[in-house]
Amino acid sequence: MILDRHVSNLVILITTMIEEQQIALKNGRQITLRPPQLTDVEFLLAFTNEISREDTFITLSGEVLTREEEERYLRTATREIEMGNRIQLFAFDQNKLVAIFIG
Predict the structure, then answer these.
(1) CATH number, domain with residue 42
(2) What pLDDT, on the 0 to 100 scale, is given for residue 56?
(3) Least packed by Cβ within 10 Å: which of 2, 31, 76, 77?
């Protein structure tokens, strides 16, 4: 939904983003977009395990990830972002991680 509505804005954000950005949705809600941080482990853990329980045809299907697995993922992701080898954004609706964009 965010991606469909704001593709050109997201491309600009992804290529130039350093700090977090606010995106206003059509319904007036504000979504925060920013690169992942090591401190996002609890948000990522809740998001991943919630998605895994759904029938979403993603890599995970019912598995429950641990805090240690998510910490390892975030360390790798942030290192690859800093090296310029990954583009990744987390989308937050208030204090809930609602989407992950990886490019």
Answers:
(1) 3.40.630.30
(2) 61
(3) 76
